[in-house]
Design a protein that fits this description.
mainly alpha; about 60% helix
């Protein structure tokens, strides 16, 4: 009985986690990097990281980074309390668009 409960609980947790990871995996190497790309994907690409860090130098050092890295810059901007402006996003978007 305990094993079945554990297995059912694990399945309930694992399925949403697998589905949440699917968009990141689906982007692949051919997808363009944008302000809607997960932050951890941007930071894993050397050129994209340089663009992001130019505007947001303290992003990775933020205490919130572990919680927001799976989100996009566009998603976290409204909750940034003005730390990430529309102008910053526009400059990042332009920089990312220049990456081959």
């Amino acid at each position: 009985m305990t094993i079945r409960f554990f297995a059912a609980s694990l399945a309930m947790v694992a399925t949403p986690l697998a589905l949440a990871a699917a968009p990141v995996a689906a982007q692949g190497a051919e997808a363009a990097l944008t302000i809607e790309t997960p932050i951890e994907t941007l930071m894993a690409d050397e050129a994209a990281r340089a663009v992001v860090v130019a505007e947001l130098p303290d992003l990775e050092a933020s205490q919130y980074y572990p919680y927001i890295k799976s989100m996009s810059l566009k998603e976290i901007q409204p909750q940034s309390q003005g730390a990430i402006t529309e102008e910053m996003l526009a400059r990042i978007a332009a920089g990312l668009a220049e990456i081959d």
